[in-house]
Amino acid sequence: MKFFVVGLGSMGKRRIRCLKALGYDEITGYDPRKDRQDEAKQKYNIDTIDTLEELVIDNIHAVVISTPPDKHNQWIKWALDNRKPCFIEASVIKDGLEELNQIAKGNGILIAPSCTLTFHPAIKDIKEIVKSGCYGKITNFSYHSGQYLPDWHTYEDVKDYYVSQRETGGTREIVPFELTWLVELMGLPTDVKCFYGETMDVGASIDDTYVIALNFNDNIYGSLIVDVASRYATRSLILNMEKGQIVWRWDDGVVKVYDAINMRWVYYNTPQGETTAGYNKNIIEDMYIDEVKSFIDAVKGVKAFPNTLHEDIQILNILYQAERG
Predict the structure, then answer these.
(1) Across the chain, where does the E strand assignment appear?
(2) Residues 160, 18 share a domain
(3) Which of 10, 24, 175, 189 is the most buried (most CB within 10 A)?
């Protein structure tokens, strides 16, 4: 298969690494910045183009869209116009997606929105534990996903890329990123309340903290905190069930389950994945590789991708509802 990767920043380069890890070497990259083209070409030995006119579209089997979120829709439309299946990074802007989804469905063209955490080994364990039914239904949960925005790209100023803009700000982007796997586990919430705002200087005037209360069917209540003001990167979950409790911190490398019937703790050790220099040690490449493989399997018709644009729109509706208060 031959791939066209649009956007050669941090995520575009990661997706190229994923494709290479899966044995795919026929990759063409595009980025309006010449320095990024040159870097990708040098690091990964791929072809790059300066203009779309140089691309032989008939030679491309699939498109990977790794641009800033505010450019996603124009590239999805480009892929649909050229009848190419596409994978897109996590979205945060809903406007226009419904129309693109209808075009894709009407023409039978695959759009695969990112759902990276679905492939995290600890989160896969958490889902299996809950869905086993051994501990009864979920009653409530609290989850905190915190990072420090200047740590994202230590090689460039926060103001130099999309996370510094309010609509595509770092925290606002991570809210749907986390909701995607939580909603898969709990279902869609019936009610959402939220406080959000700017609590400190993170290098840009954006809302750096979201505190969201969620009410789900079957009397499940949850609290979600997402921020880019945490000086130590954190993903931390306490999930209560009728007969047990799940405790997970992503830097512990283990999912702990308290079995209330037998009054003991059960431990699910998380496989240690590969990381790339410059990234947090807990941001393992493996889940990104598995995600790209899932996209390729969907393109080949082997198995459906675990997220759809319709589901992505539902997640963004939760974000928008939260922001309305």
Answers:
(1) 3-6, 27-30, 47-49, 62-65, 86-88, 111-113, 138-148, 189-197, 209-216, 220-227, 229-241, 244-249, 254-259, 264-269
(2) no
(3) 175
